[in-house]
From TrEMBL:
Phylogenetic placement of the source organism: Bacteria, Pseudomonadati, Pseudomonadota, Alphaproteobacteria, Rhodospirillales
E.C. number(s) listed in UniProt: 3.5.1.94
GO cellular component, one term: cytosol
GO biological process: polyamine catabolic process
Similarity remark: Belongs to the peptidase C26 family.
Pathway: Amine and polyamine degradation; putrescine degradation; 4-aminobutanoate from putrescine: step 4/4
Gene Ontology molecular function: any one: gamma-glutamyl-gamma-aminobutyrate hydrolase activity
Protein name in UniProt: gamma-glutamyl-gamma-aminobutyrate hydrolase
Listed PROSITE patterns: GATASE_TYPE_1 (PS51273)
SUPFAM superfamilies assigned to the protein according to its UniProt record, in alphabetical order: Class I glutamine amidotransferase-like
Function: Involved in the breakdown of putrescine via hydrolysis of the gamma-glutamyl linkage of gamma-glutamyl-gamma-aminobutyrate.
Annotated InterPro entries: Class_I_gatase-like (IPR029062), Peptidase_C26 (IPR011697), PuuD-like (IPR044668)
Reactions catalysed: 4-(gamma-L-glutamylamino)butanoate + H2O = 4-aminobutanoate + L-glutamate
Length: 263
C-alpha cells in the first residue's frame, strides 16, 4: 500500500485593509490606492491587501473591521477637512476628500476598539490624531521655526522620497527598539500638515528637530497601533527601519488573525 504523503499548508497571510481615496479619473469618480501602499503590505509583511472604498456611511464599518487582521491607513494628496477638529477654514485651493474623511475617521476608531493592529502613514498619521480628538497645523512651512516639510520639486520619485531630515526617537520607546537601540533616524518628508494638539491616549515616538511630531503610538489599546508622518512604504525592503516597522505590524496582524479565527 502506498504511503500517504504529509500535506504542509503554508501559513495564511494576514488580511490587511488598505484605505482608498476618491479621485476623478476621465470624468468618473474613482476609488484609488497608490501601489506603494499595496506593495508595503505584500513586500513589507507578506500580507494580503484588501482595498477599502471611501463610501462613507454607505460602508458597513463593523463588517469591514470583522474581516481584517490589520489596517493600513494610507497617505494622500488631500488634507483632512478642518471642521473635524474645529480648525480654521482651509486656504483656497486646498485639496480635500470628504468621502475619505467620512470613511477613515470612524474606521480608525472601530479598528482601535476591536483591537485590530494599525499602521497609519502621513495623512493617516494626521487622521489618527484627529479621530482621537487632536488637531492639526494646516501649513507647517508658514509657522515660525519650522522647516519646510513639503516634498522636493522633482518628478523623480527617488528624489521626492529621498531622506530629508532626522528625527529623534523616544528613549525606551517602541521605535527605538525597532531601530536597534539608536534614537536618531533619517526619514523622508512629503507633507504640508502636521500634528498641533496631540490627542489623548497617544504617546510620541518620534519628533523632528523643529518640534514636529513625526510618530505616535496609541496607548488606549494593547494592540500594535502606531502612525508615522513619513513614508516607510516607499521601497520598503531597501530601508532597514521601514522593514522592521512593517515586520512588527505583520507579526501583530498574524497574531491577531489567529485569535480572531479561533473566536
Amino acid at each position: 500500500m502506498p504511503q500517504r504523503r504529509s500535506v504542509h499548508t503554508a501559513p495564511r497571510p494576514p488580511v490587511i485593509g488598505v484605505t482608498a481615496c476618491i479621485r476623478t479619473v476621465d470624468g468618473s469618480r474613482t476609488h484609488t490606492v497608490g501601489e506603494k501602499y499595496i506593495r508595503g503590505v505584500t513586500d513589507g509583511l507578506g500580507g494580503l491587501p484588501l482595498l477599502i472604498p471611501a463610501l462613507g456611511d454607505d460602508l458597513d464599518i463593523g463588517a469591514v473591521v470583522a474581516t481584517l487582521d490589520g489596517l493600513l491607513v494610507t497617505g494622500s494628496l488631500s488634507n483632512v477637512e478642518p471642521h473635524h477638529y474645529d480648525g480654521p477654514s482651509a486656504a483656497a485651493g486646498t485639496l480635500h476628500d470628504p468621502a475619505r474623511d467620512a470613511t477613515v475617521l470612524p474606521l480608525i476608531l472601530a479598528a482601535l476598539t476591536a483591537g485590530v493592529p494599525l499602521l497609519a502613514i502621513c495623512r493617516g498619521h494626521q487622521e489618527l490624531n484627529v479621530a482621537l480628538g487632536g488637531s492639526l497645523h494646516q501649513r507647517l512651512h508658514e509657522l515660525p521655526g519650522r522647516i519646510d516639510h513639503r516634498a522636493p520639486d522633482s518628478p523623480d520619485l527617488d528624489i521626492q522620497y529621498g531622506l530629508a531630515h532626522p528625527v529623534t526617537l523616544t528613549e525606551g520607546g517602541l521605535f527605538q527598539q525597532l531601530n536597534g537601540g539608536d534614537t536618531r533616524l533619517q526619514v523622508n518628508s512629503l507633507h504640508w500638515q502636521g500634528i498641533d494638539r496631540l490627542a489623548d491616549g497617544v504617546e510620541v515616538e518620534a519628533v523632528a528637530d523643529d518640534g514636529t511630531v513625526e510618530a505616535v503610538r496609541v496607548t488606549r489599546t494593547e494592540s500594535f497601533a502606531v502612525s508615522v508622518q513619513w513614508h516607510p512604504e516607499f521601497k520598503v525592503r531597501e530601508n532597514p527601519f521601514s522593514l522592521a516597522l512593517f515586520g512588527a505590524f505583520g507579526d501583530a496582524a498574524r497574531a491577531y488573525g489567529t485569535r480572531r479565527r479561533a473566536r
